[in-house]
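Predicting holo structure, nicotinamide-adenine-dinucleotide bound.
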Amino acid sequence: MAKLQDKVAIITGGVSGIGAETARLFVKEGAKVVLVDWNDQNAKSFVDELTGQGGEAIFVKADVASEEDVANVYKETIDTFGKVDILFNNAGIGAVKPTEKLTYAEYRKTVSVDLDGTFLVAQLAIKEMLKTGGGVIVNTASMYGWVGSPGSAAYNAAKGGVINLTRSLGLEYATRNIRVNALCPGYIDTPIIPEDYKQTLRDVTPMKRLGTSEEMAKAVLFLASDDSSFMTGNTLTVDGGFTAQ
Ligand SMILES: NC(=O)c1ccc[n+]([C@@H]2O[C@H](COP(=O)([O-])OP(=O)(O)OC[C@H]3O[C@@H](n4cnc5c(N)ncnc54)[C@H](O)[C@@H]3O)[C@@H](O)[C@H]2O)c1
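Done. Tokens:
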């Protein structure tokens, strides 16, 4: 039996990296997926790929930090599939710059996408899930929600916020059948990491390699499916050993 048979899953940041690979796995496991991204460049070909394999998928262009766009994501989802069972709340941007050079606008932009956007998309998911009796939310935080690093103050603050947002939502809805957990990836081989920086990141990872989007997708499937049915308000750190150091 497929693990997500007939479940409707919204995946933000759904056309690249961890989000796209998770969409492939979710469709294989029987889910209908709503791909959300502010970049629509590869959206049509990716929807074609998923539907070509017999899956059901739509794309909705949206900025997760825009209330209007997010409201439209839920309208399109309900109009097309009638409900929301799973949210993979994964869209994010990085910001690597020494703090003394970071503008307040750059700081705000990072926090607004990585933390405020995560809240906004989760809040509307919760409203829909309360109507249908429950659901599952998986937020993408980061190992940098656990530990600090120089030059990434805005990103790290936002991801730390995502971890405590996850705890708080998990507790708030624990008796209402909405589970909320977070994935904390280490360095993963996706377009968010500049090519010329990848070797440095392999070197500082105990396993001496980057993680893959496929490895993240399997962890997300665990969190999104009944395999993690007694888990809420918690995190799964998948980082090749980085935060064990
Ligand atoms: N790759 C890593 O090493 C790593 C490590 C820890 C955490 N993460 C987190 O994983 C998540 C996925 O990142 P990825 O590595 O797959 O990178 P990615 O760049 O391949 O994917 C991120 C996607 O999010 C989309 N996006 C960004 N801002 C958006 C917005 N405001 N509205 C809608 N879509 C938006 C991008 O267009 C992109 O398609 C992010 O939250 C990232 O912070 C990644």
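Residues 97 and 199 are 19 Å apart (CA to CA).
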